[in-house]
Amino acid sequence: MPTERPDLYNTFQVLKERHSVPDLEVLPFGVRYMYGTDKDLFKDYLGCEYNGHLYIWHGTTDPGVEATRQKEGGAAHLVLGFHPEIWRVRYHAQSVPTFTHLALCQPGKSPIKIWRDSNRNYKYDHGEPIQSSKVFYINFHRASIHILQHIGPYSYGCIVTQDKRDFDFFMNIVINSNMYKSNHNCDFSFLLLSSKEFPI
Q1: Closest CA relative to residue 161, chosen from 12, 2, 6
Q2: Contact partners, residue 77, CB within 8 Å, separation at least 6
């Protein structure tokens, strides 16, 4: 289950202000660790601010080794910063019935910003272009129903939770939020921080 971190709450508020994040009932976020991306591990933290509570759990904000090696043109990495109104509640992976599950999915109201690892070195290199689109299909979903140590095929750029139980906890918050109950087509935002900004 996710860990509640009241000790981090005030620092998180400062970071929200720095990134011009408005007050939102539900704010998913990620904390990207810049090292070890080539190890194919769930090395990052994902989280959610909800009604004055801050929850965190393990996941990845980067694509796995499989995507880095195989994706034509380079695997997509979400740009650090605030991404407003990018996702809606939809079914992820509808073409794979055994894996289909409710998640936060593109397209939302606004486009998402990414860079592509075209030289497959697992890091952003100065000059690599930033791309923006509503249809990269970079979603916020879970990995396997089993707890895996390696990302494998589960992220080609998506934000992915390692443990299904953590993701179920998060989606329960989402679907029971006032914003979703009042409008099932509402848009959810995402704040992606670096571990240098927000060490956990």
Answers
A1: 2
A2: 61, 62, 63, 114, 115, 116, 117, 124, 157
Residue ranges in the chain assigned as alpha helix (H): 9-18, 65-70, 164-175, 178-182
pLDDT digits (tens, 9 = 90+) for 73-87: 999 999 999 999 999
Across the chain, mean pLDDT equals 96
CA atoms of 158 and 67, how far apart (whole Å): 11
Look up residue 194 and give its DSSP letter: E
Cβ atoms of residues 114 and 79 within 8 Å: yes
Question: Could you tell me the end-to-end alpha-carbon distance of the chain, in angstroms, rounded to an integer?
Answer: 17
Break the chain into its structural domains and give their ranges: 3-194
90/156 Cα distance (integer angstroms): 18
